[in-house]
Specification:
D-Maltodextrin-Binding Protein, domain 2, 19% strand, 2 domains
Length: 327
């Protein structure tokens, strides 16, 4: 090796070592500036509320500003794509909900892989959904609803928060498992559907308990079953859909904090530690409970396994049910 080439190799090596050293130093000093949380949904939803709860407490814990940026659109795809394309340095993270795992089965081509392009930090919470009906319908149990639907094929309708939403999937899943013929009526969101559900324009829907609890208490909606694998603590005498005769049915929603793929392990560990501590605070748990949510606060590894499992579940269901977002 001649002298000039030797010097160039040495200079390159020194530069590489310096770069590695600076990266290590940056991780050691993390966080040294503001953190941004992308919420790929409109303000006011559970993902947004959870992100703001995390933001408020995390900022105090790390001594740096933590801002929330809503980037809604295309059922979350716009904001999630922005997260996937962000620098993997821990200064941009995101909060997603269950529709993140549903998107690959419905939106093709999706500009990102919902698992491979992200580094899970933690699952925030799980929210149980419930099956509610209009009071105009003379059915007070799941079986009575099924019997009525079978006696009136194609006459009953279930509402959803939009084509491809989890409430669309759960309504279609229920109808298929129960062997009944129902019409899907999509709305722009849960709130938009309530007047029609209460008046009997549509007859049934799956929604989060906080979204419908006031209407249940006022008698404007009837609660027939808890959608998830366990009964709702607020209504311990109301069975789950599975207990009522649809084995294996489990309708719930969840939240998760993600970072871009390639985020350094020490940064992921720090974020997990701090956000888990936030989620385990009594006041945060209490706030989540008012939304019908139960804090999870798990490890990055557990969050990834859950995400992979949910993507497979939804992909299999969409294929089996032949759900098309254009319908």
């Amino acid at each position: 090796m001649n002298r000039n080439r030797f010097l160039r190799v040495c200079a390159a090596s020194v530069g590489l070592l310096a770069l590695m050293g600076s990266a290590s130093l940056a991780e050691d000093n993390y966080p040294s500036r503001a953190i941004r949380i992308i919420v790929p949904y409109a303000p006011g939803g559970q993902g947004d509320i959870t992100a703001r709860l995390i933001s408020d407490h995390l900022a105090s814990a790390i001594g740096q500003p933590v801002t929330v940026e809503n980037r809604a659109g295309a059922n979350g795809v716009i904001g999630i794509d922005a997260l996937a394309k962000s620098a993997p340095d821990g200064y941009t993270i995101g909060v997603v909900v269950a529709s993140h795992a549903l998107s690959p089965a419905l939106i093709k081509p999706l500009p990102y892989d919902p698992v491979k392009d992200f580094t899970p930090i933690t699952t925030t919470a799980i929210t149980q959904m419930v099956m509610v009906t209009t009071p105009a319908l003379k059915a007070n149990t799941v079986q009575e609803f099924i019997d009525y639907a079978k006696a009136h094929p194609g006459e009953l309708a279930y509402k959803s928060a939009g084509p491809g939403s989890n409430s669309h999937l759960f309504g279609a899943w229920f109808a298929d498992a129960a062997g009944i013929d129902m019409i899907h009526v999509p709305y722009k969101g849960s709130g938009d559907s309530m007047p029609d559900l209460m008046s009997g324009v549509v007859h049934m829907g799956f929604d989060t308990l906080p979204a419908v609890n006031g209407h249940i208490k006022s008698g404007q909606l009837k609660l027939l079953a808890a959608g998830g694998p366990a009964r709702a603590p607020q209504y311990p005498d109301v069975p789950t859909v599975a207990e009522a005769g649809i084995p294996g049915f489990a309708a719930n929603s969840w939240g998760m904090v993600l970072a871009p793929k390639g985020t350094p392990a020490p940064v992921v560990e720090r974020l997990n530690k701090e956000i888990v501590a936030v989620l385990n605070k009594p006041d945060v748990k209490a706030r989540l409970a008012t939304m019908g949510a139960e804090a999870v606060a798990d490890t990055p590894e557990a969050a990834r396994k859950m995400l992979e499992s949910e993507v497979k579940l939804y992909t299999d269901l969409v294929s089996k049910l032949k759900i098309d977002v254009a319908k």
